[in-house]
Each structure stands twice: as structure tokens, then as C-alpha cells.
Amino acid sequence: VHSNNDPRFPTVPFIFHPVAKDVNIYFDELEGVNSPSKDDDSLLHHGNLTSTSDDASRLETVGEGVPDKNKSNGLYFRDGKCRIDYILVYRKSSPQTEKREIFERNIRAEGLQMEKESSLTNSDIIFVKLHAPWEVLGRYAEVMNVRMPFRRKIYYLHRRHKFMNRIERQISRFQGWLPRKPMRLDKETLPDLEENDCYTAPFSQQRIHHFIIHNKDTFFNNATRSRIVHHILQRVKYEEGKNKIGLNRLLTNGSYEAAFPLHEGSYRSKNSIRTHGAENHRHLLYECWASWGMWYKYQPLDLVRRYFGEKIGLYFAWLGWYTGMLFPAAFIGLFVFLYGVTTLNHCQVSKEVCQATDIIMCPICDKFCPFMRLSDSCVYAKVTHLFDNGATVFFAVFMAVWATVFLEFWKRRRAVIAYDWDLIDWEEEEEEIRPQFEAKYSKKERMNPISGKPEPYQAFADKCSRLIVSASGIFFMICVVIAAVFGIVIYRVVTVSTFAAFKWALIRNNSQVATTGTAVCINFCIIMLLNVVKQPRTESEWENSFTLKMFLFQFVNLNSSTFYIAFFLGRFTGHPGAYLRLINRWRLEECHPSGCLIDLCMQMGIIMVLKQTWNNFMELGYPLIQNWWTRRKLYQEHGSQRKTSFPQWEKDYNLQPMNAYGLFDEYLEMILQFGFTTIFVAAFPLAPLLALLNNIIEIRLDAYKFVTQWRRPLASRAKDIGIWYGILEGIGILSVITNAFVVAVTSDFIPRLVYAYKYGPCAGQGEAGQKCMVGYVNASLSVFLVSDFENRSEPTSNGSEFSGSPLKYCRYRDYRDPPHSPVPYGYTLQFWHVLAARLAFIIVFEHLVFCIKHLISYLIPDLPKDLRDRMRREKYLIQEMMYEAELERLQKERKERKKNGKSHHNEWP
């Protein structure tokens, strides 16, 4: 029983009641449906439900009293009573006829009913309609531990709902331009989902009298019926042999072309939903969830869960929570950016860069790169200040804390959803063993320590060998990614000289920016190209194993170039006259005179915008184009056939199937975005704002795709988001480390502090204002004697265009002694002070933020107080209910004993 976890509570012995067969279930009139036969053509009917056929008069007689709507909506068998629970599609021309016949014979042996229809558009395509009668549903629901309602709950108003109601009232009061109830859904359009208001227990045919059954035809909803049928199909043999089972293998070898449950009709209606109501749940989901005009509304998660299952419902619940939590992060990030805009004119560093017309910088590449004035990088210095200012450190700390708060409050939100959706007691032991695993390791069994039942298991040596093979594959792919990044590095090193010798002055004068921009675009193409190149016990273990491996590859693929720019670009170049070279040939790339942060900002901004745009196009644009092209071909071939005359199975077959990895691509896109939003957020404060704008679109885009463009996915249960939560925690920890290094190493925050407190005009006074930064630019540049250039590094220009005579000295970014010092070009004392300050900042920052994160995790309980009280109250009520049931049973037994004793007494003379 739901929420009865206390072993101290007594259990009630349920009284056995025989299950009466439902006489209202109408079986197909054809004898071949339930009898095995080699050739199933007797089940095949041509045409659709709205077309006339020779069987019309017979169907009218057989289906007397059956609603005409059931006959014409394409969701039922030809009798209008048996609902279609699953569709299989195959081609007559397929050579796997024998396997398919054996499979279908075994399907009928399991008790499933079957009908066949030929396609209206292609006579080679056959649709196999499957229906599960009540006996089959009850038997397998008990095997699968399907939880069903048996008693009404007593509900209390959530504090969270009261809080959100107050927010909505304030928004509506002070912002009259917003629509009424700007976030809440219209309750009158939503159905009353009864299963959310009931206690549930695993279904049992012996205890059927305890469950709330108003109508056996609707007791199991459509999603549950499809899940049960899919469970059967995954375990039916198609050949004699242990490993020759399951629908998946038949889909792989071409025996069947497709397999899917049906949508509940059309998602559009000629009538308004407000005046005539929703035609079906799909129509309701489209109007109140997938419509673009509902972007400011809450999601109807209960309805999503009912139609698509708990796993998809949890994805949209997490996506909505993540999007909502991005609002404060986006606001603070925008504030940091605007702070940089407002303080731009007061920034002493950018002023000095713009006024440094007399400072000549050394060339940034060999031969073709000219000498340049420092003032030429004035624009880049100002742009750098927009992202690298006094608020950057605060924002880095805030985002680290934000990631922790987001995860902690998601645990609370998930607990509420798990309670409302009856997932609290759903354990991994209740999860189905993968049929492929069951078939392969069925000869090796061991006792399950939880259930006490024998189950197949995989030997440790086999696990290790598979793990080694799998890890080797991932390691190889990561090496391919690193090789691609190495190629990008070579491209940047080579093309900077090429752009410096370009004919167009615009590119020649901005050779480094052109190099960075084209390298980022090429890197994006490589990322998307490598994204295309990509045997556990249970389904979740398989998903977790696959998810972890693929995430590691995708994460390295997406972020490797960003890590190179953030922590390696310009760090190991040497100095003029002694440059470090790649393969002793190419000089390593240097940072821009205004710093390396501008390159990191460009990398993150371009990749984030391009990737999100591309993902949105591929998610919606690709299925839209595919479905449009399919409809266009159908209309060209069958112009006289109206769209409405196609049955539902034909319409759904022409939709795009959900990708083979389920929700993996959806989660992966958001998790990688979360990494981009947190890991390098100190260098790009606008990342949360871009993520927020994308996610507002993403929710409705995914909803529209699931409801209108994809075939209905199989509903499946899950109690959380799986291994993705652990990955999110890992990203949160990594973000603290990377942001500490970005602030300390990539930005100029630490060198400026050291100068202000140690070397500037305010040294020793404890001040750090803009007046204390006077002379910082000059102090951060070292002097180089031009005559000390290597022959292969000496520029073609001698710099005479600046002063009328050849240049004698040039400047470069570093802390080194001048050429005429006792140790030419050796590190100065300021370099060691800056290095020590950077290391100290990293240690202090990490320890401080980690302490705050752990404190927040400790202070925020995983369960909300009102939910904990509700669960305790529920346990108390269940205990009382059990006590009353036990007392009633004892009283009945006592009355029966008294009655039996009296009757025996009357028999004596």
C-alpha cells in the first residue's frame, strides 16, 4: 500500500474473491484471431473505417448498439468495442515471413487479439492492430506490479501553491498589461485526474474487490494498456531458442518496420475548447501545453504524465524547474553586464589602453604580422571590461551557490512530484529485467536478496570484459576529439599569419579576431559532426551506462576547445626572441593585447548561440519538413482522398518516430547547456540569459514535437531523472574549480589587485579604487629589444611608419626584466607576487564556495515540511484503516462462529 513503509504496522489479510469474467468484452468474430494459423490473411481487411466494403452490412449487424463514433475514429477494431492498444507495421515484401508468423502465433497464444489492415496509400504495407482483453491486462498488470487506485486521498493545500498564488495576485495587480492569472492554467479546461486523488497498490486479481473499478474498459488507461502489451511483445519468441525473443530484434532485422501505440485522435478541432471542450487528451495537451501562445503558463504535468508516462513527465517537470531557476541567474548576469556598461567610462585600464598611442606592441605572429599601437586595441579593451569587471567574482560565487540551490530545491520538487504521482515506493526491484539480458543469461541464475526469487545474472568476469571494451571505445572517441582540437590549434597558429598578409585591410588589421571567429565556426562544425558518431541488467542500468559514456564524449567534444582557450591559450608561448614552437615550426598563438578573455567570450557566445539555434532547428524543423514531405507525396498520389478519411494508425505511421535513445538527446542538450551556463560563467555572464530565452522556447518546442510531430512514445515509469542528477552535481563541483581558475588565470582581476595594493600609487594605503590603477597598463607590459628577434620571427616591417625611423624597442604582455638587466628577460618580482596571489585566490575561493555549498545542502531538507506531514498523516490513516478492517474481519468471524454453533445446537433432538 502506498506510503506504508513501517514494518511495525500490521498487514491486513485480504479476503479472496473470485474474479468474474467481463462478459461485456466483445471478441472478434473471426475464428482466426484466437486460433494459431500459419497464414494470417484471414485477418486482413482492405480499406479504412470510413470507406464502404463488403463487410458493411455484416458489421452493422454484429456491431448493433455500438457507437458509430468508435467505428470511425480509427482507435478501435472493426467491431467498435475493442480498443487498439498497439500497432505493428510490416511489408508484404519482407523476406522475414516465417519469423513474423511464429511471432504472431505466439502473440495470440498469450491472449492478445489481432486484426490486420492494408494501407490506403501503399498496398505493400500491412498494419497489425493488437488489443489486450481484460484477462490479459489483469494477469500482466500483476506480474509488472502496476499500481492502481483503491481509496481516495485526503488532500491539503500546498504552501508552495499559496505562495505562488500571492505572487500571481501581485503581478496581476501591478502589471495590468499581463493577462489574468499569468502563470496558472485554466482549471475548467483540465480533466479531473482521479488516479492522483487515490491511494494505490500493486494490482492483484485476488484482491480486485479493493480497487476502484467503475468500468473495466477504462480501469487501465491507454498508456498503461500500451505498456502492458509492449511488455508482452518484448518477451514473445519468434524462433525456437533462448535468445530468439522480443520485438526489438524483429524491428532490427526488418521483420517489422514500425511499432507504436496510437495517439488519442487528432490534436486539432474545429470547435473551441472553451465552448465545446477537448476532443481528447491529445487535443487538450495541444491547446493548454504545446501551443506557442501558452509560453507564460505552467505546464499541465499531471496530464503530460497520464498521456506520455512518468519518465517523460519528469523530464518536462525538471526542464520547467530548471527554466524557472534560470530567472534569478539571468537577472544577476544581466546586472553584471550592465554594471560593466555603466562603469566603462570610468575604467582606468581601458582609458590607458585607448590613450597609449606611444606604446608599440611586438608582432603577434612571425614575419607578416606588423608592429601595432596599443591604442589600436581600444575597442577590445572596452568589450573586455563588459565581462571582466569588479562584479565578476561576485557572479562566479553566486552561480556556484545557485547551482547548489537549484539541485537541492529540485530534490524537494521531485519529492512532491513522486508523492503526487505515486513513485515514492517505486523501487528498482519492481523494474523489469531487460529481455535481451534475460535471454542471454537465463542459464545462470541466482537468488534475488530482495524478492527471494531466482533471476538471471551476469558473471563478474563478463562484466569486467564488457566494461574494458566499452571504456576503450569511449577512450578512443575522446582521443579523436582531442585530435580534432589539436587540428584547430594548428589552424589558429597557421591562419593568423595568413590573415595578417591578407589583401583586405579590414581582415589584415583584425587578423587575430578573424582567426578566432573562423576557428570557432570550424570548431562548431566539428562538434556537430562528431555528435553524429556516437549489456546491463535493467532498462535504467542500460540507460545509465549509455548516458554516462555518451555524456563524457559529448562533454569533451563541446568543451575541449573552450578549456584550451581559457587555460592554455597564450600561457606557454615563451617571449619575443625565445618563442616556444609547435613541432619546432609553428609559433604558438598569443593572446590579444587586451587579454585572453575576449577570445573566451567569443568562443562561448558563438558556440552557445549557434548550437542552440541548430538544436532547435533539428528538433522541430527536421520532423516538420519530413512530415510535410510525406503528406505532400500522399496528396500527390491520392489527391481525391481527404486527409480526414485516413484512420489514426495511418496518420501516426506517417509521423516521425521518437529517436532510438528516448529522452537522451533532450536531457543531453539541457545538461550541456547547464555546463556552459555554470562552468565558464565568470567569463560570459550573459550565458544564463541566453539559456533562459532558449529554454522558454525549448519547453513549447518539445511539447509541440511530442504532441504533433512524433508518434506517441511508449509510456514508462521512472522515479527520478536517473544518472543525470549525479552528472549535474559533478558539473556543479567542476564549475567551482573552473570559475576559480578563470578569475585567477584568464582574467586580469588578480594582477590588478596586486598592482593596486602593492605597486600602484595607493600601495600600502589599503585602497583599490580606479585612482589606484593609474599606470597599470605600463606596469603589465615588458620591454623587448627588436634586434634580439630570431631570423624566422623578425617582421618584414621595421616599424618606421610610427616614428620615421626603425623601431628599437617594442612591448609585450608579461612580467620580465628589460634586455639590459643582469638577467635579460627573466621574471620580475611582480610576476611571483601575481602567481602567489593567483594560487591563494584559487584555494580561498574553492574552499569558501564549497563550504557555502555544503552548508546550503545541509540546511535545505530533501522533503518539504508540508509533504512530510502529509506522508505521516497518510501513514496514520492507513494504520487506522487497517485496524478497522482487521476488527471488522474478526467481528465477522465471531458472528459466523456463533451462527454455526447455534445451527449445530438446533440439530440435536
UniProtKB/TrEMBL annotation:
<keyword id="KW-1003">Cell membrane</keyword>
<dbReference type="InterPro" id="IPR032394">
    <property type="entry name" value="Anoct_dimer"/>
</dbReference>
<feature type="region of interest" description="Disordered">
    <location>
        <begin position="36"/>
        <end position="65"/>
    </location>
</feature>
<feature type="transmembrane region" description="Helical">
    <location>
        <begin position="315"/>
        <end position="341"/>
    </location>
</feature>
<feature type="transmembrane region" description="Helical">
    <location>
        <begin position="551"/>
        <end position="572"/>
    </location>
</feature>
<dbReference type="GO" id="GO:0005229">
    <property type="term" value="F:intracellularly calcium-gated chloride channel activity"/>
</dbReference>
<dbReference type="InterPro" id="IPR007632">
    <property type="entry name" value="Anoctamin"/>
</dbReference>
<keyword id="KW-0175">Coiled coil</keyword>
<keyword id="KW-1133">Transmembrane helix</keyword>
<feature type="transmembrane region" description="Helical">
    <location>
        <begin position="511"/>
        <end position="530"/>
    </location>
</feature>
<feature type="domain" description="Anoctamin transmembrane">
    <location>
        <begin position="304"/>
        <end position="874"/>
    </location>
</feature>
<keyword id="KW-0472">Membrane</keyword>
<dbReference type="Pfam" id="PF04547">
    <property type="entry name" value="Anoctamin"/>
</dbReference>
<protein>
    <recommendedName>
        <fullName>Anoctamin</fullName>
    </recommendedName>
</protein>
<feature type="transmembrane region" description="Helical">
    <location>
        <begin position="391"/>
        <end position="410"/>
    </location>
</feature>
<dbReference type="InterPro" id="IPR049452">
    <property type="entry name" value="Anoctamin_TM"/>
</dbReference>
<feature type="transmembrane region" description="Helical">
    <location>
        <begin position="671"/>
        <end position="693"/>
    </location>
</feature>
<feature type="domain" description="Anoctamin dimerisation">
    <location>
        <begin position="76"/>
        <end position="301"/>
    </location>
</feature>
<feature type="transmembrane region" description="Helical">
    <location>
        <begin position="721"/>
        <end position="745"/>
    </location>
</feature>
<feature type="transmembrane region" description="Helical">
    <location>
        <begin position="467"/>
        <end position="491"/>
    </location>
</feature>
<feature type="coiled-coil region">
    <location>
        <begin position="873"/>
        <end position="900"/>
    </location>
</feature>
<dbReference type="GO" id="GO:0005886">
    <property type="term" value="C:plasma membrane"/>
</dbReference>
<dbReference type="GO" id="GO:0046983">
    <property type="term" value="F:protein dimerization activity"/>
</dbReference>
<keyword id="KW-0325">Glycoprotein</keyword>
<keyword id="KW-0812">Transmembrane</keyword>
<comment type="similarity">
    <text>Belongs to the anoctamin family.</text>
</comment>
<dbReference type="Pfam" id="PF16178">
    <property type="entry name" value="Anoct_dimer"/>
</dbReference>
